[in-house]
Amino acid sequence: MKYLIASDHAGFHLKQELIKSCEHEWIDLGPESTDSVDYPDFAHKLADAMKEGQAEFGVLICGSGIGISMAANRHKHVRAALCTHGLMAKLARQHNNANVLVLGERLTGVDVAKDCLTQFSETEFEGGRHTARVEKI
To answer: What's the pTM value of the predicted model, to 2 decimals?
Structure first.
């Protein structure tokens, strides 16, 4: 499965770890170092790439995950879910049809982040009663 991935400087190391250790086709939208950058720029870059059809799913990472998820969710076609454990990631896909997994490097360890990505990747949207709810977002 192809994933877009982006972070800010505070999420750079976790981004690199996921790219290195998780077997997905990654499109890395940056940044390329830990030099200070603004998280909204990378959230918007990922949202634009999704809109262009470069990939159906994405991963965003900043220090806490809060700011970058807020920026991403400004886009109508993005349903970004900040997850701190695997069950949250599973439910975000299953019930909310989330298409962007958001992680906070300063709050989420590498193993938990990998579990979140696994659960997110392996779970399908359940549809049914959840469809009308998602359409209201």
So the answer is: 0.97
